[in-house]
Amino acid sequence: MTDLDETDRRILELLAADGRRPYSDIADDVGLSAPAVSDRVAALEASGVIDRFTVDIDRSQLREGAHVLVDLSVPPGNVDEVRESVGAADAVEHVFVTASGDVTCSARLPIEDVRAWVGDVVGTDAITDFDVTLLESADWRPSVGGAEFALACDECGNTVTSEGETARIGGSRYHFCCSSCQARFEERYERLDADA
């Protein structure tokens, strides 16, 4: 596995700002040709750094209501259930789980119906309390600047460094922190494949 250089990081920054930016525009910015940028993006996809290209919809343009931040106090056993319920709700733009285990979301809701919305989406038994903050404005700008990219070993979950291994097994690409993890993974894969 190779480390990302400054050109890779700049390409990621430009794509994070606009995933539909033409490779020719990126090439002008980073001093490469458009085919060279295309090759780098393909390599970033193949290595797992880029998972997919998505659309970030500004839901405020699609529905009425006030933009609010809803903080849900959640008992430890309910965090995943509440996060999934909130994340599936149509009005929700972003969902976060805090270090203390609370679930926070930004949503566009009719302000007079927030209590009813929380009851419908989450249920009052799944949370201990909630707070609502009315937002004047919101802006979502994902950034890769200063971020360290690290892949997780597909066998043990440890960070894959430049000394790690990458292998194509069964048509998929996998990353490993060391050759022994790769060997264990391949051995288990072959056993499961033989049993199938």
From TrEMBL:
Entry coiled-coil feature ranges: none
The keyword Oxidoreductase appears for this protein: no
Domain HTH asnC-type residues, every copy: 4-67
UniProtKB keywords: DNA-binding, Transcription, Transcription regulation
MF terms in GO: sequence-specific DNA binding
Superkingdom: Archaea
Pfam families: HTH_AsnC-type, TRASH_HVO_1752_C
Xref: InterPro entries: ArsR-like_HTH (IPR011991), AsnC-type_HTH_dom (IPR000485), HTH-Siroheme_Decarb (IPR050684), TRASH_dom (IPR011017), TRASH_HVO_1752 (IPR056526), Tscrpt_reg_AsnC-like (IPR019888), Tscrpt_reg_HTH_AsnC-type_CS (IPR019885), WH-like_DNA-bd_sf (IPR036388)
Name this protein carries in UniProt: AsnC family transcriptional regulator
Organism whose genome encodes this protein: Halobacterium bonnevillei
